[in-house]
Design goal:
Elements: H1 8-21, H2 32-48, E1 56-62, E2 75-81, H3 85-96, H4 103-110, E3 116-120, H5 123-128, E4 134-138, E5 143-144
Parallel strand pairs: 2-3
Antiparallel strand pairs: 1-2, 1-4, 4-5
């Protein structure tokens, strides 16, 4: 039996495609190892503290990756940061030009990779919505949580 009354070979292709898209069709799943590599690369960038990442104060993880999913859709990351005059000017200029005001910070955090879903300045709203956050990195220590050799 096939899915749409057509050829069985077509069903195999359809199932293979859907299996890479996830149940919501939003994009491919990540293998846990690849997700961990993305988080590690982000931590390396944060530890270097280059502009604008020197403004980042805290980074939290949440969602399926933290809950231990083997094939998460992405890694949910909440970023808390300071705003200095230069960054505020940059954000206003970007918004007035119709661009993403966080594009430079997103690029600095993720490089040219995909798989990290970034939320900026949303910690309090996420907690109010009952979402459990796991602290991954804090500026005052300039490093990862001491008890962690790697992210969850």
């Amino acid at each position: 039996m096939n899915l749409d009354g057509g050829c069985a070979e077509c069903d195999v292709g359809l199932l293979a495609w859907w299996g890479t898209r996830g149940p919501t069709g939003g994009g491919p799943y990540l293998k846990r190892g690849r997700a961990t590599e993305l988080v590690q690369a982000m931590l390396t960038r944060l530890d270097r503290g280059e502009r604008p990442l020197e403004l980042v104060e805290e980074v939290y993880l949440f969602g399926s990756y933290v809950r231990g999913a083997l094939d998460p859709h992405d890694v949910d990351v909440a970023v808390q940061h300071a705003v200095d005059e230069a960054f505020a000017r940059h954000q206003v200029s970007a918004m007035l030009a119709g661009r993403d005001p966080y594009a430079s910070m997103k690029k600095a955090l993720t490089g040219s990779t995909r798989g990290l879903s970034l939320q900026f300045q949303q910690r309090d709203d996420l907690v109010a919505d009952g979402i459990e956050l796991t602290l991954l990195w804090r500026r005052e220590t300039h490093s990862r949580r001491p008890s962690d050799a790697s992210p969850p």
